[in-house]
């Protein structure tokens, strides 16, 4: 089932809701520049195990409305809260990949974890995707600046280059093309705006506010969100567990999808 939920008077986000009568609800927040469809190989599997899977397309991406503004983490976390309220979700598992992980962390801080019983972060872009004067981990700032320039000058090439770094294992050209098309669904201005958010925002304090059980899954070969960030997350989140994926890059939910699904289910059922 797919439908639109208003998050502002003139903005609606698209929500995919599989197995609405499932015993436990998992809300998925996707990474940049994709959509909920990045989790296809989880949505194929988890509903058959009795789970309700809710996937939100971030504003500006996928099937959601694409306004020119509203791409800071506060607004994106508020969008999530609007969906939680509209679906009347309680006691759900919140999971986020990459930028979706950053949005999930801001939701936990800004909305005091409203309705969330457990949190799972996959290659999450927190507490800072880029290196800073007091933070030696992450990407060089110039990498993100070049992504923004590429978005405005030749977005298809930027997306293709990004896709070439996404997985660790060999993928077919067909899968590469599929990932590329997901990126093209986004608006150019939204693509650039999120990248600018990476430059501006940090989530050190947000991590410290998290009290629910938290699972951190991260590929050790990740070229987009370095594995070192996962270690920082583990240090900042008191009740957390880090599971390294030894044969994965940024797209660990595909690189090692069986292990990924098993670790997620095990965590939910603990």
Which architecture would the CATH scheme give at its second level? 3-Layer(aba) Sandwich
Q: Say how many strands there are.
A: 8
Please identify which CATH superfamily we are dealing with: Alpha/Beta hydrolase fold, catalytic domain
Helix content: 40-55%
Q: Which strand-content bin applies to the residues? A: 15-25%
Task: Provide a compact summary of the structure.
The chain is of the alpha/beta class. Helix content is 42%, strand content 19%.
If you had to describe this structure to a student in words, what would you say it looks like?
With 270 residues, the chain is an alpha/beta fold. It has 10 helices and 8 strands. Helix 8 (227-236) links the parallel strand 7 (214-219) and strand 8 (240-245). The longest helix is centred in the middle third of the chain and has 24 residues, at 141-164. The two termini are 28 Å apart. Keywords: Hydrolase, Oxidoreductase. GO terms for molecular function: arylesterase activity; oxidoreductase activity. Pfam families: Abhydrolase_1 (PF00561).
Topology:
Elements: E1 2-8, E2 11-18, E3 24-29, H1 40-43, E4 51-56, H2 73-87, E5 92-97, H3 99-110, E6 116-122, H4 141-164, H5 173-185, H6 188-200, H7 204-208, E7 214-219, H8 227-236, E8 240-245, H9 252-255, H10 257-269
EC number: 1.-.-.-, 3.1.1.2
Protein name: Arylesterase
Domain AB hydrolase-1: 25-123
Keywords:
single chain; 270 residues; alpha/beta; Rossmann fold; 10 helices; 42% helix; globular; AB_hydrolase_sf; arylesterase activity; AB_hydrolase_1; EC 1.-.-.-; AB_hydrolase_fold
